[in-house]
What does this fold into?
Amino acid sequence: MSHHSFLARRLLVRRIVAIFGVGAGAGDLAAQEPDCDDRAVLGVVVLDESGAVPVPNATVIVRWTDSERVRRPVREEVGAGGRLVLCAPRDTRQATLWAEFGDASSEEAVVVVVAGLAHEVELALRSGPVRTGRLIGQVRDARTDDPVTAAAVSVPGREEVAETNRRGRFVMSGVPAGMQELNVRHLGYAPLSHVLEVSPGLTTEIEIGLVPDPVEMEPIVATALRLRRLEIKGFYERKYWGELVGTGIFYTADDIDRRRPVEISHMIADESGIRLECNLRRTDCRLVNTRLSSPVTGDCPLSYFVDGMPARGMKLDDFVRPVEIAGLEIYKGLASGPAEFPSSRCGMVVVWTR
It folds into this structure.
């Protein structure tokens, strides 16, 4: 399919969450790599704010949704023409996607996925003054801590109503910045109204505990503001999935501030299976994975990455101080490391500065 024919059939993502499924045949897109067989094909183009100029090397994040399991989001970089073609998993019913490039990002698009069809989406990056924010949250039963499915989440003055999925999670984009009243409703639970501040261009995470009606207890609401830089770098997604499946250990700046380590290596060495080894003068120290060290192969030192770049030849503590860290990721084995970084047999430490 030519670029002009793709643009002619485009669906531009504006200031609201778009929900659509294009019913064209998958022939043109499926003819490109990768070969999707009889699965649905998702074709994406990322453009600048004018909607006319493709943006190469932008990152597209896709969340596939199905009824059987929760899938880890896909992060893919578009090509030189700002284009990306993906094959949908066979049991996927819906795809939620958006694009990021530097400090600019698009609004989310939600595509209803139909097997055998081609779905084309155009994402326009927005880099001007931001007047909206994003809410990501989870609704649970305050008494049992079980997820509450199909709860209606809304903000007055915003037409779209978000509905929690089977894990009780919801996403709301395009929420006007400032003080907003969040309303949560579900049959069998006492309605909840909570006032929170939405920061422009940032994502606020919220945990909600609904009270079964007529049980007399207070609802539970907790909020936390995500750092924009960490969100763009994928830290929060890796944190969510790493903690869910147990492949990594993650600390935010607040976590580190509460621990108040003198050196960040001391805090990392407190994790089981990791030891800080230094020479007698303590001029050379390194973090070692004791589970992978042996008399035969010797010590197994962890690799370091600071702001996405490998840090070789120096102590980690010489690169960064605890007060300078915005996010910290620890991976203890080859299979647990994220795809964004080169594999390391002994594990790795990834540091993001403020």
Summary: The first strand starts at residue 18 and ends at 20.
